[in-house]
Write a structure and sequence with these properties.
The chain is globular and about 75 Å long. By secondary structure, it is α+β, with helices and mostly antiparallel strands. It is built from five helices and eight strands.
């Protein structure tokens, strides 16, 4: 009887470890594709790329759902994840529909469009970020539970190394009207609506600092990056933002 239970435990442990590693790999690909979609220039391209990223990850998890012998908590996590993915996709579709309606409303001035767009962002972006962060929190909780149950057989969710100065150098875009150029000599220019703000930039860990000639300083706290983008907050209470490589 003990031998049978041990065999069952080892079979469950092996299956669960395999599923866990696949989940981590799937999540890495998803985040790069999902956030990279925001860097597309046309609205339809953004929606199509984001939907494709979500559909691909849902497909990965649906395959994992069929895996035999995995831990019950892992199965519950996958089921909850699939439900949240549907919520994310629905919220994104509502967000872009609202954004397109504003952009295509010829009765609005450019100033009114900007105000309404910011209002729309303030409604939907926190919802999307919250749904995304739920996944990260659940993954970390699940990781601790699996380690306690099966020992150190599960690699933790990977932490990317700090960004480098070579990564930062070059031209970047934030939103639709803010542009940055970071040069080798640590000088920089920020351009907003065709108005330029020269200064210097520096990097400490994942904190990118701008010291403008007008005696103001801004810190971009980078928390995630891909080949063509990085995401940041101005402070812990700020909404997530993103710069795209030009």
């Amino acid at each position: 009887d003990k031998g049978g239970k041990k065999e069952e435990f080892n079979k469950r442990k092996e299956a669960t470890t395999g599923v866990w590693k696949t989940i981590l790999k799937s999540n890495d690909f998803f985040l790069d594709d999902f956030y990279g979609a925001f860097c597309r220039k046309k609205d339809k391209e953004i929606i199509d790329a984001m939907s494709k990223a979500i559909d691909k990850q849902v497909s990965d998890y649906e395959l994992l759902q069929k895996k035999q012998d995995m831990d019950e908590d892992m199965g519950l996590f996958i089921n909850r994840f699939l439900d949240r993915s549907k919520d994310i996709k629905k919220t994104l579709q509502e967000y872009f529909e609202a954004a397109f309606k504003i952009e295509n409303d010829n009765s609005l001035s450019e100033k009114s469009k900007k105000i309404k767009s910011e209002e729309t962002d303030s409604i939907y972006l926190p919802q999307i970020n919250e749904l995304q962060n739920q996944d990260s929190g659940k993954i970390n909780t699940l990781y601790r539970e699996l380690v306690a149950r099966y020992g150190n057989n599960f690699p933790p969710p990977a932490q990317k190394p700090d960004v480098t100065a070579d990564f930062i150098k070059g031209k970047w875009r934030e939103g639709v009207n803010k542009f940055f150029e970071f040069r080798n000599d640590k000088t920089m220019t920020m351009t907003v609506d065709d108005k330029s703000y020269p200064g210097k930039w520096s990097l400490s860990g994942n904190v990118l600092t701008f010291d403008f000639e007008e005696n103001s300083t801004i810190n971009y706290n980078i928390f995630y990056y891909g080949q063509q983008f990085f995401r940041f907050k101005l402070d812990s209470s700020d909404n997530e933002r993103q710069l795209c490589r030009q």
